[in-house]
Design brief:
Elements (H helix, E strand, L loop, with lengths): L2 E4 L2 E3 L7 E5 L16 H13 L4 E4 L12 H8 L2 E3 L1 E3 L8 H7 L3 H10 L11 E5 L7 H17 L3 E4 L6 H11 L7 E4 L7 H8 L4 E5 L6 H4 L2 H13 L3 E4 L17 H15 L1 H9 L1 H6 E2 L3
Parallel strand pairs: 3-4, 4-5, 6-7, 7-8, 8-9, 9-10, 10-11
Antiparallel strand pairs: 1-2, 1-12
Length: 302
């Protein structure tokens, strides 16, 4: 039977509840100096605020080597009552020291499988998804390497693959690689950041593969396209893809947290949810937030 793998153990898909399907509690990168998400107290406060707004679960997409602070996640989940899903995987090369990447050569899929089945480090926390990343309108050698490893780990475990689309681009290239070449079923793939490149034709073509379409934000960097999201979702629903949609907050820097004056995780439920309800109706928005994440991240674990 399919289960969602949380940091406190596996749960039935229907037990996940209202879910932020793409966010970060902890994250560190040389590309974001001085903006790290590394404060456990702030993470707890953010989860408390999200819970108060009606949230029940968060899928954290922070992958291997980017400051996941996995050992803190069970404590945070117990303290706040919010279910947490942790990721394995690898981001773009720019986020890592070259020496670290070299050390993963020849064993990347093995690392992913171990984190999904045995646990991350000595924490005992098992990852529930594999996060990888594409490039801007293209896939470089690093992306192909990480996606090949992710596909191998998927075939070994059944785990879903969540993909960072750089500025929302490259969705069809990702699907060509993962689905056509590497034989990953479309419904085991989550494409992130589609709101950042709001091409309705590409979005419908991507949805036709059976993949999940994640719309996440808001952010200062992508504010120019944030306001397109309600109409983009309605167009996809009208085209018959209402059952493929996910929503997330994608908080990646400390200043974006609600406890630091930013929109943060609660914004998804406080402002985005009622805005989307005006366009899509309560029933569909409730499914996108409360049903689809359980379906997207549930696995018949091998």
């Amino acid at each position: 039977m399919s289960r969602v793998r949380t940091v406190l153990g596996d749960v039935r898909p229907g037990e996940l509840g209202v879910c932020d399907a793409h966010d970060h509690l902890f994250l560190r990168s040389p590309q974001l100096p001085g903006q790290e998400l590394d404060d456990a107290s702030a993470a707890r406060a953010e989860l408390v605020a999200f819970r108060a707004a009606g949230g029940a679960a968060v899928v954290q997409w922070t992958p291997y080597g980017m400051g996941r602070r996995t050992a803190d996640l069970p404590t945070l989940s117990r303290a706040t009552g919010v279910r947490l899903v942790c990721a394995t995987g690898l981001h773009q090369a720019a986020h890592y020291p070259a020496q670290m990447l070299q050390g993963l050569r020849g064993r990347l899929a093995e690392v992913f499988v171990a984190e999904l089945t045995e646990g991350i480090g000595t924490t005992g926390v098992r990852a529930g998804l594999i996060k990888v990343a594409g490039g801007f309108h293209a896939l470089d050698a690093h992306a192909r390497w990480t996606m090949a490893a992710a596909a191998e780990a998927h075939h070994a475990t059944g785990a879903p693959i969540a993909v960072h689309l750089e500025l929302g681009t490259g969705a069809l290239d990702v699907l060509d690689l993962l689905c056509d070449e590497l034989e990953v079923p479309g419904d085991r793939i989550v494409l992130g950041h589609l709101n950042r490149f709001p091409d309705p034709v590409v979005q419908r073509q991507a949805a036709a593969s059976g993949c999940w379409l994640a719309f996440d934000g808001p952010s200062r960097a992508h504010h120019a396209t944030d306001w397109w999201m309600p109409e983009a979702l309605r167009a996809l629903a009208d085209a018959g893809f209402a059952d493929r949609l996910l929503l997330g907050g994608d908080t990646v820097v400390a200043g974006a947290r609600s406890v630091n004056g930013g929109p943060g995780m609660p914004y998804l439920l406080r402002r985005v949810r009622p805005r989307l309800t005006q366009v899509l109706g309560t029933q569909l928005v409730d499914r996108i937030l409360g049903v689809h994440p359980g379906q997207a991240f549930a696995v018949d674990w091998k």
